[in-house]
Specification:
By secondary structure, the chain is mainly beta. It contains one helix and eight strands, in the order αββββββββ. The protein has a single domain, classed as Porin (Beta Barrel), CATH 2.40.160. Helix content is 9%, strand content 65%.
Length: 262
């Protein structure tokens, strides 16, 4: 009996010692959830775009005018449309509170074309003008609101463009009388808005709308009559353009995604 009692006491003491040792071991903490990364719009970017544009051109005859179109004659509005495509580059800075500010430059080649025919109320002379917006450049500031990898923005700034035209003048009896041509550099302003989607680190796709207003400018039109006479007339012209385009941007020095503090 004494032997059994001593063996039982030794077993209890061993179990107690092992339990105390196990209690002193460090307990592994559960893993802490890591917040998901947030898209960062800060950085220099370049990209390309394509789209469609609509335009209308209004013109008024300036002094000294002609027999067919006296000073103050309002020519028929020229409505036009066509494809466009180009490149853009800019820089964004994203603040800690969703706000994104930046600057952007765009250059687009266009095939926005149209024509208009004006008939003289004085002589019945008919002039048909064929115009084209050849290209335009925009320099704008941008401000937007970031919702992770979505950016909603507005933009506005200055616009430069180049347009050209050719015309044919026909007498009331249908006889060809003259041809004309002009090339014009235009200046104006633009406003627009769009949405951009970051679909991969450094890459984003966008769609935007721009309204471009090329303010009034005086255009010299060079005429050649069939009898060999050369002369120049002057027209006050305004051109307004509306553009919808999509594009892809690549952002340099993207860096690792940051964790939002908002």
């Amino acid at each position: 009996m004494v032997r059994k009692f001593l063996l039982a006491s030794a077993a209890l003491a061993l179990i107690s010692t092992n339990s105390g040792f196990a209690a002193d071991l460090p307990v592994k903490a559960p893993p802490v959830p890591v917040p998901p990364p947030v898209y960062d719009w800060t950085g220099l970017y370049v990209g390309g775009n394509f789209g469609w544009g609509w335009a209308h051109v209004d013109g008024t005859q300036l002094a000294p005018g002609t027999t067919n179109f006296p000073t103050g004659t309002v020519f028929a509005r020229e409505n036009s449309n066509g494809f466009l495509g180009g490149v853009q580059a800019g820089f964004n800075y994203q603040t800690p509170y969703h706000l994104v500010v930046g600057v952007e430059g765009d250059f687009d080649w266009t095939d926005i074309r149209g024509s208009a025919t004006t008939i003289s109320t004085v002589t019945g002379f008919t002039s048909t003008n064929n115009g084209r917006l050849r290209d335009f450049a925009l320099l704008t500031g941008r401000v937007g609101w970031a919702a992770d990898n979505w950016l909603f923005y507005a933009k506005g700034g200055v616009a430069l463009g180049q347009s050209s035209s050719s015309s044919v003048g026909v007498l009331a009896n249908g006889t060809l009388f003259e041809t004309g041509s002009s090339t014009t550099d235009r200046t104006g302003w633009t406003i627009g808005a769009g949405v951009e989607w970051g679909f991969a680190p450094g890459w984003s796709a966008k769609i935007e709308y721009n309204h471009i207003d090329f303010v009034s400018s005086n255009i010299g039109i060079n005429h050649i009559e069939t009898v060999g006479t050369f002369f120049t007339t002057f027209v006050s012209s305004t051109e307004r353009v509306d553009v919808v385009k999509g594009g892809i941007n690549y952002r340099f020095n993207w860096g690792a995604p940051v964790v939002a503090n908002y």
